[in-house]
Amino acid sequence: MSYNLGFIGGGNMSTAIFQGILRNGDHPASKIWVSGPHLENLLHWKELGANITNKNGDIYSTCDMIFLGVKPQFLSNAISDCYNTLPLNMPAKKVLFVSILAGTNIEQLHKALSILPGEKQVIRTLPNTPMAVGAGACLYTPDNSVTEEQCRKVEILLSGCGVCEKVAEHLIASLGSLIGCGPAFMYIAIEALADGAVKQGAPRALAMRLAAQMVMGSGKMVLGNTKHPGLLKDEVCSPGGSTICGVTALEQGKFRATLINAIEAAVLRTKEMEKK
Hints:
elongated; cytoplasm; 8 strands; NADP; Pyrroline-5-carboxylate reductase; ProC C-terminal domain-like fold; P5CR_dimer
């Protein structure tokens, strides 16, 4: 790939994507640029071979594809800095922006980017934090001007961090809450399961490690199997056994309904954020 790849914002998610790209060898570090207000916070990028700058305009003038990795409330300031630090007499160009901003839709992104010269294309993404360990999930939706080839390039870049799924934008709220908020829900489940074992006398560190391993393995069972999760559950539940007694306790505690309500609450909040 001969194009220059940029990041406006070098925070945790941008760093995870950057490291995934290097891990897969999908793009040379020497052709990756990142900007941030404090260069000292970008030294880990430089150590891995990337180019760093404190001027967002350098990213726009140099790169053909740019990941937007600032917090949503700082988007306007980041784009203003991009405009104010552009080189003089910069020729018109086409740039593909890949946004990782939560709660910011394609229309809002185009509005924010409209002050920049040239043609701007937009892909909206929603990655989750497990991308930092190469086991994440990322949704993306392109605007009408983005080509299939460009979508494929983005998929390749993100594949080093986990799975990448193209969806219609109206599904970002529901599926995005599932993959984006879901890890927090699973961390609570892991902690609670470990607490349950500790209550019965198990060492905490070992209980936590085994709870996490069990959740990871259960996920792999679902992904690598054509069987419905309900059937996999049934296969563990022997008649009159320990598991079905535990499942009964979960049902009495409205475990399913609580998870459904958690996703619903997260989706409603996401939709509220998009209206602001």
